[in-house]
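Researcher: Quick test of sequence recovery. Tokens follow.
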């Protein structure tokens, strides 16, 4: 899912999106019930560099964060949260600047 798509999904949460037929969109409805976490994931310049050094894209990191967000744990360091998924340990702030739809990845490293 790209950023534009993520914004569209995030914008529709809590509303009842409909297809032309008038029926609710099952993917958006399912997403809004499953997760109360971030839809948008931004990376700091440092996190982008770390992702590249690990052979990961920003989208890989965002997918891993969303997958692990419900199992996150408090981080005693600079970032608010730690999450582990897809062989990545991700330190991030959520909500980012008070926006509950956005997470900001501060840093990441290999979980192995």
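Model:
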């Amino acid at each position: 899912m790209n950023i534009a798509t993520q914004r569209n999904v995030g914008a529709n949460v809590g509303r009842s999106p409909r297809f032309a037929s008038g029926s609710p969109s099952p993917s958006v409805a399912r997403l809004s019930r499953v997760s109360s976490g971030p839809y948008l994931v931004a990376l700091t310049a440092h996190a982008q560099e770390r992702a590249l050094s690990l052979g990961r894209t920003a989208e890989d990191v965002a997918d891993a964060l969303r997958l692990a967000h419900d199992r996150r744990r408090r981080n005693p360091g600079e970032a608010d949260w730690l999450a582990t998924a897809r062989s990545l340990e991700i330190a991030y702030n959520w909500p980012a600047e008070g926006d509950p739809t956005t997470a900001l990845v501060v840093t990441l490293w290999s979980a192995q």
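Residues 1-34 have pLDDT under 50 and may be disordered.
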